Amino acid sequence: MRLILIDFPNFEPEINFEIEKRILEICKADSFILRFWQNNPCVVIGKFQKEEYEVNLEYIKKKNIPIFRRFTGGGTVYHDRGNLNITFCKNKENILFSKYILEEAKGVTETILEGLKYFHKNLEIKDRSSIFLEGRKILGSAVAIKNNNFFYHASLLVNSDLNKLKKVIKWEENYPKNIRLPVKSKRNKVTNLSSCSPLDIDMVKEKILNNFLLSLKIKEKSVIKIYNLDKLYEKI
């Protein structure tokens, strides 16, 4: 097995979400794909959510913050450059932790968790494969089976603008009782990983990558690194 690492600077959400679709195309039975990425300010809602109940639409229109809908489930998140997104993709038959999708997702979250424990020991997994730091959420994740692949992505608050996040997201639920119930976001108090110690996103990526290599039993020299957009569209 080989690990394809995708990590290059692009902050345009439209391009980043197209890359997510591309990952599904290039993921083969002999490969794992790990991607690190960041976005300019935007809101991302789950596949089955209704934006008018999840997002402060008046505020984001005023601030010109776009909304994007991903093809996985899960809740609504706010992205900015202080937020690290982590994508992991593999053939669904390459079972790492469990044949059950939610348990497999939890195993991936635990792999990320072990990398983050370098910065703070008091981290734990709760709820839907989310990571909490001293009772406050720093990471949420979503998962899907698509094109015969297991596709997981997570959003990690490293040094995000929490004041803006709290203005973007609706923290009071106001779902009407007479509509078919969509997927609600689970509201939690949040914090940044950087609140516990001085760090930057490159340091976080290094620790997470090292723990994936350890968990997948892959040597670093076997990693295929994609550091620009053009290479992503070459034959790998």
Q: Layout of SSEs?
A:
Layout: E1 2-6, H1 13-26, E2 31-37, E3 42-45, H2 51-54, H3 57-62, E4 67-69, E5 77-79, E6 83-91, H4 101-116, E7 123-126, E8 130-133, E9 136-146, E10 149-157, H5 162-168, H6 201-216, E11 223-226, H7 229-232
Helix pairs in contact: 4-6
Strand order of the largest sheet: 7-8-9-10-6-2-1-11
Shape: globular
Q: State the secondary-structure class.
A: alpha/beta
Residue share in β-strands: 25-35%
Number of strands: 11
Distance between the termini: 14 Å
Helix content: 25-40%
Low-confidence residue ranges:
none
The CATH superfamily is known as Bira Bifunctional Protein, Domain 2
So, CATH architecture?
2-Layer Sandwich
The run of helices and strands is EHEEHHEEEHEEEEHHEH
What is the radius of gyration computed over CA atoms, rounded to a whole number of angstroms? 17 Å
| Major beta sheet summary | 8 strands, mixed
Q: What's the mean pLDDT score?
A: 90
CATH topology: BirA Bifunctional Protein, domain 2
* Highest-level CATH class: Alpha Beta
Total count of domains: 1
